[in-house]
Design brief:
The structure is a single chain. The protein contains 6 helices and 13 strands. The strands form 3 sheets. Strands 3-4-2-1-5-6-7-13-8 form a 9-stranded mixed sheet, with helices on both faces. It has a two-stranded antiparallel ribbon with strand order 9-12. It has a two-stranded antiparallel ribbon with strand order 10-11. The model has no long low-confidence stretch (mean pLDDT 91).
Length: 259
């Protein structure tokens, strides 16, 4: 079993060290992560400059490789040339802060896992619901249980399963590894709060992206509902953004292009 680990908080983040520790003994681990915090970069790839890969030496990150780019860059570079083998599993996180509902569209943690999925590798993104790394050890124990469960479902003949993409959100609790799991759908948020306008030292206006909106659709069955009720949320994701229900309507409304 070969496991590729990445994140969006950067290779020095406590969450990625916890994820690596949680996976010890489950397989051969490669860590290739962004050099710096790249939260909110979604699926961005760096196309306007060359990327460099470095290797950390010493301490808890010894042997980790890091890329001066985005989370998706890290996995993309790993899968298309840096690694000499294709990993069996891509894991990302443990992110500090939830990736639920609409947030998954912006998440670098989810995007890094998605990059693996796009290359045909099963992938799981892990996040703690609250920021600050509180109860990270319990989250890591939960991660190990989820990974072991996922691996137990693989074909017994040694072949790879069809690729899948799971998004896991873990409450910041000391008993997180004992909480029930819920397979959920994504909830929805209200629109983000307005930007925060400030003035730079040069007297120019600058803007900070405002906070995310509150949960709008958080009923039973959603990821928001699960974590609010003391459950670990596991959401299967897909990449197809097509509005299949609206295809017929748009086809009927589209004017003919025949001369």
């Amino acid at each position: 079993m070969r496991i590729l680990i990445a994140n969006d908080d950067g290779y020095l983040a406590p969450g990625i060290a916890a994820l690596v520790q949680a996976c010890q003994g489950l397989g051969e681990i490669d860590v290739i992560a962004p050099e710096q915090n790249a939260s909110g970069t979604s699926n961005a790839l760096t196309l306007n400059r060359a990327l460099s890969v470095f290797q950390a030496k010493g301490g808890p990150v010894d042997g980790f490789r890091f890329v001066n780019g985005t989370p998706s860059d890290s996995v993309h570079v790993a899968l298309t040339g840096l690694l000499t083998h294709k990993p069996d599993l891509v894991l990302t996180g443990i992110n500090q802060g939830a990736n639920m509902g609409d947030d998954t569209l912006y998440s670098g943690t989810v995007a890094a896992a998605m990059e693996g999925y796009l290359f045909g590798v099963p992938a799981i993104a892990f996040s703690q619901v609250e920021k600050g790394w509180v109860e990270l050890d319990a989250a890591a124990r939960t991660v190990r249980r989820v990974v072991q469960w996922a691996l137990s479902r693989w074909p017994q003949d040694g072949s790879r399963p069809a690729p899948y993409l799971l998004n896991v959100n873990i409450p910041n609790r000391s008993d997180a590894d004992q909480l029930p799991w819920a397979v959920t759908r994504l909830g929805r948020r209200h629109a983000s709060e307005p930007v925060v306008r400030q003035t730079s030292p040069r007297g120019e206006p600058v803007y900070w992206i405002g906070p995310a909106g509150d949960a709008r659709e958080a009923g039973e069955g959603t990821d928001f509902y699960a974590v609010a009720n003391g459950q670990v949320s596991i959401t299967p994701l897909q990449v197809d953004l097509t509005d299949h229900a609206a295809l017929g309507t748009w086809r009927n409304a589209c004017p003919s292009q025949q001369p």
